[in-house]
Amino acid sequence: MKILKTQQTSTLQTNFFKFGNLILPAVSLVSLGLTFLVAISNIGFEKKITIFLATIIFYILFFVFLNFWQKNNAVSEKSEIDAEAIFDAEVEKQLLALDDASRFFGASLKTADMFRLALSRVQEIVPHSASSLVLVDKFETDLKIISAGGLNSREFLRVERISRKGLAGISLNLRKIKIDEKLTLEKNVLSYEALKDFESAVAVPFFEAGEKVFAVLTLYGNRSEKFTEDKVKILEAMSNRIAPLILNSLAVERNHSNALTDALTSLPNERAFYLILENHIAESQRKREERPLSVLSIDIKEFSELNQKYGHSTGDKILAFVADNIKHELRKMDFLARSGSDEFLAVLPTANEDETHEIVARIDNIFQITPFEIASGEKSYLKMNIGAASFIKNGESAPELLQTARLKKETTKMGHEAKVIWFPKEFVN
Fold first, then answer.
1. Which of 49, 287, 392, 412 is the most buried (most CB within 10 A)?
2. What is the 3-state secondary structure (H, E, C) of the chain?
3. Cα-based distances in Å from 8 to 78, 90, 234, 424
4. Confidence band (pLDDT; 50, 70, 90) for 121?
5. Which residues share a beta bridge with 335?
6. Mean per-residue pLDDT over the chain, rounded
7. CA dihedral 223, 227, 231, 235 (to 10 degrees)
8. Range of lowest pLDDT (95-104, 238-247, 405-414)
9. Rounded-to-integer distance, Cα 193 and Cα 154, Å
């Protein structure tokens, strides 16, 4: 399509150029004829001189204008030829492929998957060895690598925050594509291990709602992969297609995250808890005794009284305080969620009864030594009600395990210490 338009424009400019070459002799003949007629006329000598001077000035101005116009057309024609060379059939094919991806996958793929899909198209036109996608917060102050591919991608993902002194930050500031030919800018923000295989980089800002940059794509090339001005033009065209794809994927992930996250504590909610528990149960069913699994149900003793006495604002702070402390005492592999009110649920993969006892003891102990500051000078030591259930022994489905854990938690409210866990011999439906 673009190639056809370029050819049409080029043909039109060529015709204008030929027309300019014909009109110059015509104007010259008219000027000579006018000069002859004035010379043989009976008008006064002063008027003849005035007409002669006007004719000469008009002829000179016309010649300068025509020369300038022809030069401009020549530059424009060369530019169109360059554009035709850059946006060839293969580039058009990849651009159309990105448009198809937007229609078919725009609202279904995760950001990492969409990033890989888009980069596979870019790779065919602009070869590179590695890439990273830097997400920009709404204030344009926080830059974070959320996805990376190619060589040393793990090193890129280890960098939690990117300084604005790097290539992505400069591209964000300038609001345009920026080339870092010798990685001078990137060496300010990335390690030697991340950059050791590359010699140049280019950053491409992705725009949302006009001038707002929401992400920056950075490509890294080796000695043979040069980012020229021609490549910049291609990247600019491709960025207009890629930006909506990434933006839609981010929106999908945010909506999905909001649906599975508790707004108060930022923990996953009960729906997320069931999804994670079902996955771990499937793994434990496959390996049975080789892969133990435990579930905890935890709530705060006398939380209703505290909430009523100090108000809902303090109650919310207590919930956030409890969530942080429980999470701190769990292992990295463990999963903590908030169910509702003051109940928290935990999945403990590979944890047998002894390991579960140890984890519960740690949770119980942290609240004994860490008081919650209600107000200036007023502190309260919170206590937990905790119940646990183990896979196979207490059930083999998510509802069975959770029901047992909640029943055992209720026994602690009837006089048992929170750190004592009762594992019934069999789960009774």
1. 412
2. CHHHHHHHHHHHHHHHHHHHHHHHHHHHHHHHHHHHHHHHCCCCHHHHHHHHHHHHHHHHHHHHHHHHHHHHHHHHHHHHHHHHHHCCHHHHHHHHHHHHHHHHHCCCCCHHHHHHHHHHHHHHHCCCCEEEEEEECCCCCCEEEEEEEECCHHHHHCCCCECCCCHHHHHHHHCCCEEECCCCCHHHCCCHHHHCCCCEEEEEEEEECCCEEEEEEEEEECCCCCCCHHHHHHHHHHHHHHHHHHHHHHHHHHHHHHHCECCCCCCEEHHHHHHHHHHHHHHHHHHHHHCCEEEEEEEECCHHHHHHHHCHHHHHHHHHHHHHHHHHHCCCCCEEEEEECCEEEEEEECCCHHHHHHHHHHHHHHHHHCCEEEECCEEECCCEEEEEEECCCCCCCHHHHHHHHHHHHHHHCCCCCCCCCCCCCCCCC
3. 14, 20, 21, 84
4. confident
5. 347
6. 81
7. 120
8. 95-104
9. 10
